[in-house]
Every structure is written in structure tokens, then in C-alpha cells.
Amino acid sequence: MKIEISATALFVILFFSFGKSQEARFGAGIVAGLNASQILGDDTGGYNKLGLQGGLRGIAHLTDRSDLYIELLYSQRGSYQKGIIDISLQYVEVPVVLTFKDWLDEDEDFYKVAANIGFSYGRLLNATAEGSKHDDIVNLFNDNDISFTIGAEYFTRENFGFGVRWSKSFNFLYNKDKHDPGRNSLRGFFLSFRGVYIF
Questions:
Q1: Per-residue pLDDT averaged across 83-95, rounded?
Q2: Would you say residue 23 has pLDDT above 90?
Q3: What span, in angstroms and rounded, lies between the C-alpha atoms of 15 and 4?
Q4: In the chain, which residue ranges form alpha helices assigned H by DSSP?
Q5: How many whole angstroms separate alpha carbon 3 and alpha carbon 5?
Q6: Residue 102, exposed/middle/buried by CB under 10 A (0-12, 13-18, 19+)?
Q7: Which pLDDT score, from 0 to 100, does residue 82 have?
Q8: What is the mean pLDDT of residues 154-173?
Q9: Whole-angstrom Cα distance, residue 143 to residue 163?
Q10: CATH topology of domain 2-198
Q11: Is pTM beyond 0.90 here?
């Protein structure tokens, strides 16, 4: 796992370094915000588990109105309902997202609105399930997460904006068919509320 994370970090560093020498085509930024997450199959409802999300963004400018984002994020997810369940999951997450821009500010020459859609790979770093009936299967949670993600951003200035993303895992966090048919399979969902600063 350390090798995978180091390789990803090296890729992002090289991507950002190359971007500085090709300012018209590449850019970089910082992302920070909060996740509100839940897990389908845990017998509770609601996006009640709050956690941090933050990291780096690499930007490839494909056209005047479209970009490709590649991000390297630390992401806290899970499920929570007081007195019933508290699953805490920590991921390193790498979203790859296509972005389409609109609403040109002609005075400042930047687009205010961006819609994005893409996929994300997450690697589970740590998992706990304190005070829940799932605490005996934490060691069976899937280390890899593949998610679909869709969202939007609003930029108040050319280099600063905020947005929201919704993500759903394709694969199970816990697969009952693989481990125990008597339990529910678990699948993650989460909302991300983020701010972004572009260098």
C-alpha cells in the first residue's frame, strides 16, 4: 500500500511541476472541505457521518470550457447514528473528473459555474466500527473503493470557488456473498462540500 500511495504522490508532484512550465494548459490547486456520508445496508439512514476531505488538484485545460481534474485527497467516510452505529473509514482517494464550464464573467474573463462528472479510486487506510454490530467484520472490509462521482462548483473569483459532489461506490465495502450470506452487504455513499483555491 505504501508503494501505491508513493507512486500516486510522485505522479501528482510531477504533474504539478510540469503544469508550472505550461501555464496555458495546466494548473494546480488545493481542495479542502467536509464529507457527509452513509452506508447502505447498515440498517440506518441519513448522511450523518461527518469527516474531513482535503488535498491537491491537478488541472489539464482541454478546451476553453472544459478541464480534466486529477486529485489526491485524504477522505474520511463512514456511518453514524447515535447509540446505534459508528463506522469510521479513512481513505486516500484519487478522483479523475471531467469538468464543463459556463456563465462567463466578461469583465474578469473567467467562468463562474462548472459541472463535473467522473470516477474515483479510494484505498482504505483504516477502519473502525465502535459500538456497532459490524465491529467483528471490520477486518473483512474491502481495501479498494471504486466510485462514480458527479458535482458542481461556483467560482466567486478566477482562483477561488466552492462546490458539492455526490459519490456512490460501485463495489461493496462488505460483500455478504463472499463472507456471510446471513449479513447485509455494505455500500458507501457520500456528499462532499468543498472549497478550492487555484494557484
A1: 94
A2: no
A3: 17
A4: 2-21, 176-179
A5: 6
A6: exposed
A7: 87
A8: 97
A9: 28
A10: Porin (2.40.160)
A11: no
Among 156, 159, 71, 69, which Cα is nearest to 115's?
69
Please determine, for residue 15, whether its predicted confidence score (pLDDT) is greater than 60.
no
Exposure b/e, 111-133, CB count within 10 A at least 16 = b: bbebebebebbbbbeebebeebe
**In the numeric block, which cell numbers belong to residue 8?**
500516486
SS3 18: helix
What sign does the CA torsion over 171, 174, 180, 185 have?
negative
Is the CB of residue 119 less than 8 Å from the CB of residue 148? yes
**Cell numbers at 35, concatenated:** 464529507
Domain boundaries defined on the chain = 2-198
For the cut 80, the answer to whether the pLDDT of residue 177 exceeds it is yes
Q: How far is CA 71 from CA 23, 42, 95, 107, in A?
A: 18, 29, 5, 30
What percent of the chain clears pLDDT 90, i.e. is strictly above it?
Answer: 75
How many angstroms separate the CA atoms of 75 and 78, rounded? 10
